[in-house]
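To: structure subgroup
Subject: Chain for Friday's discussion

All,

I'm putting the inputs and outputs inline so they're searchable in the archive.
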Amino acid sequence: MSVSVDIATVVAERILGWSGALITPSKSAYRAHHPRFVANANVIVGTTKAWYGDLDLDRSDRDLQALANETHETVHVLHEMDGRFGNEEHPLLDRPVASYAPNVSYTPK
């Protein structure tokens, strides 16, 4: 069973910062130099949407693994459309950009 929305959001914001984070106003320019950048990402803890905003997976891998370990749930990073606009209640978990299993030591990618 997935953690509650409230708990998932509190833990995600403590680890990742406030939802709605913006890394750069020019997403295409940033992406050109940071290929693991996910604009308007959705972070799903278990099956619960817990956080959204820009993520650079090169900078956030360790934090996303910490989120999985602390919640004891798999954390999925989804593209914007896979967790919003009709997919809020049932995010498309079969299409993650990245996934982090709980209780795993962090290994840089």
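Points worth raising on Friday:
The mean pLDDT is 87.
Residues 5-99 form one domain.

D.
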